[in-house]
Design goal:
Layout: E1 15-19, H1 25-37, E2 53-57, H2 68-71, E3 73-77, E4 84-88, H3 89-106, H4 113-119, E5 122-124, E6 138-140
Parallel strand pairs: 1-2, 1-6, 2-5
Antiparallel strand pairs: 3-4
Helix pairs in contact: 1-3
């Protein structure tokens, strides 16, 4: 018996909405990455992009636990000597919450051409409104990810 590998023509993509209000950042991002990769489907293959589209709303209302918003830092490097920069999570969320959530999800995807293809299916919005209502998205309820 041979292993089943889905073909690109057999893949169907659904749309999912995640409301990030009061959710822990890490738990939210792992669930979004799981759906983007397609690991929730029985036809998952690690070398094919079989994931669904994910829309995250209320990205500005995401929380971090145990004071991590002030303690943890986001690091980036320009590639030049002395080009390292850091920023607190609280400052990054205040400046651009959608980009901070997007970068957190991006770090949980494969680092290569497949991950770059999968991150294109992620849409993050700061407010409760999004322009993807025509796709009839399914609302993902993630009770385990809510902050206690």
């Amino acid at each position: 018996m041979s292993t089943y590998t889905p073909k690109a023509s057999e893949i169907t993509r659904a749309w999912h909405v995640i409301d990030a209000e009061g959710m822990v950042l890490g738990r939210l991002c792992t669930e979004a990455a799981r759906v983007l990769r397609g690991k929730h489907k029985p036809t998952f293959a690690p070398h094919i992009d079989s994931g669904d589209h994910v829309v995250i709303i209320n990205a500005d209302k995401v929380v971090l636990t145990k004071g991590k918003a002030d303690a943890k830092r986001i690091w980036r490097h320009s590639g030049y000597p002395g080009g390292i920069r850091s920023e607190r999570y609280s400052d990054a969320l205040g400046r651009d919450a959608a980009e901070t959530v997007r970068n957190s999800v991006k770090g949980m995807l494969p680092h290569g051409p497949l991950g770059r293809q999968q991150i294109k299916k992620l849409k993050v919005y700061v407010g409760p409104n999004h322009p993807h209502a025509a796709q009839n998205p399914v609302v993902l309820d993630l009770p385990a990810a809510k902050a206690r």
